[in-house]
């Protein structure tokens, strides 16, 4: 139900427009039914984020009838919850001492603040002024609910329904009480009546959705939570609940949309991870990647950088994939899968020297990739009694790679000079490229890794220079 533009006029007509003055009769009591519905419309507008129109409407109505507490009460009710609104309700009670509305407003504020003893006192004052003020009885029922006094709450809700048989809040209150008592059928019936009386009632959708989910009726639960989200689009909990139900229902696209909305309202690791997972199921790589990247910022320990790399590789973004894999390795240098992925990125780019390094770091899972690449580049473990013979053996391997490269680059030529630092055991500890006028990655990788793996004369630590000249 939506508040029609004429409701302000209806309320003004239903209430006296002047306060009691000496010699005048007491104020005519307002019709509380339209007041109740106006309050519901304000609450619905607040949930939907379009409260400005309600505030303007009731501010104008209160200015048009300054001696009527009803539009003034509703204008205050449309203001943001907080100390300032409470102060305005208190001022209303002082300015209109024969109206219960100021005390009613303070009581509702106290309930929102969960200061129930203060709510009790405000309600007593409201009912002393207007004993038939059933809006105060409605608030009193809510206070009893909070305290677990369900019988007293139910009695007050029924009193409200005597005065206003379609009151949505009272029906919803009885639904909550019935649910607490285990009477699911009655809870559903009362919540349905509440929804029928006011189709924008978030609480009724939520309760019916919870009841449907409790009996594993995912389809019905999802329908009710869809209504709840429409009634309160900024309610993040409702969107998360609906997203999970849609996942169970198999509606991947719908679930993804809800996770997106939930993340827009507030980012946290759980929601971002769920969005990434749902986007993956929906084959929405762009959304999955954004979610994973944001996840890394919110909770680095949960980031799936390897998955980001896969997404970027699928998009042919080799630079992006490399950056993602290096992030994974920065977190865990022993991440074999990340090293394997990095090796494949280097291989795809033609950076064969770095590819072998990454494949070796990956260990057993990269054995096939490493063996294939080393065979292609003629990388072998060479050992000779002296450095001269070692040079010749490695020269033969490098020449073989060079000749295979001539098929693709017939003009390939130049000089490659490297320096090796070997330890006392004859193992290379450092290989440096001092000159490379060949500018071919495969030739350089062949020379580098053969020199890196070679066995040098033992007990003769030092530096050795190797030069490989290539002419067409």
Automatic annotation (TrEMBL):
<dbReference type="Pfam" id="PF13432">
    <property type="entry name" value="TPR_16"/>
</dbReference>
<dbReference type="InterPro" id="IPR019734">
    <property type="entry name" value="TPR_rpt"/>
</dbReference>
<feature type="repeat" description="TPR">
    <location>
        <begin position="302"/>
        <end position="335"/>
    </location>
</feature>
<dbReference type="InterPro" id="IPR051012">
    <property type="entry name" value="CellSynth/LPSAsmb/PSIAsmb"/>
</dbReference>
<protein>
    <recommendedName>
        <fullName>Tetratricopeptide repeat protein</fullName>
    </recommendedName>
</protein>
<dbReference type="InterPro" id="IPR011990">
    <property type="entry name" value="TPR-like_helical_dom_sf"/>
</dbReference>
<keyword id="KW-0677">Repeat</keyword>
<dbReference type="InterPro" id="IPR003921">
    <property type="entry name" value="Cell_synth_C"/>
</dbReference>
<keyword id="KW-0802">TPR repeat</keyword>
